[in-house]
Amino acid sequence: MKVSLFVTCLTDTFYPRVGEAVVRVLEHLGCEVDFPEQQTCCGQPMYNTGCHKDAADLARGLIDAFENSDIVVTPSGSCCAMVRDYYNELLADDPVYAERSKAFVAKTYEFAEFLLNVLKVDLSRYKCTWGGGQNGDQTVKTTYHYSCHLRGLGMTDETVRLLGMIKGVDYVPLEKIDQCCGFGGTFAVKYPEISGTMVRDKVDCIQRSGARVLVCNDGGCALNITGSLHREGVPMTTKHIAEIIAEGLGLMPIEQRSNDR
Fold it and tell me: Which of 20, 162, 183, 243 pairs as cysteine with 224 (C-beta 3.0–4.6 A)?
């Protein structure tokens, strides 16, 4: 199966290891992965600030970049939601791009969604073992931030199901799991006081979980939460599910990326 990686701005800039993990996992599962170099921002910041014409221009560029792709996979629920929820609306009256937008939307998937709903992956068959499980029967208490945009995509427990297939992961549900972390794209810039209160509440929930590892599949949420964890002096390793799978399959060395450094 041929798959194209839509890496997204935040992954490319702040979390390139996540992009590498996505590629390594997909290739290990039998996919042929390419990276269209002309890809750009999805246009979400422009859309959120009311600059819909600029967002539409970026949408056209992204559609052009992936014109010849069979399937597009992204590690960001936020950017995937931008494509799936708004591209057809933005380009509905464009005689050149309206139908091309529909085709692009239909072939774009978030990473965890793609693994479970398209590839039908069972990681236990691959003896995926992570964290303490690699050194015996010890498990690592792990929790998960369920981002707003993943809910917007209609995703429910995909990442939790993947975590349940990995030996060594002791999953602990997060309190108020459906509560926003306060990032919200440009929301954190427009309303920093409200955003700060929301993320501190999220950090309190993470602390009460007793987890050592936080799984977060959106770069914006990860930046916001890890920043608050650092300010509060809470040591925590934050990872994307793609990193945990890649490490568990032995495709990448385990990296303890903690916000306390």
Answer: 183
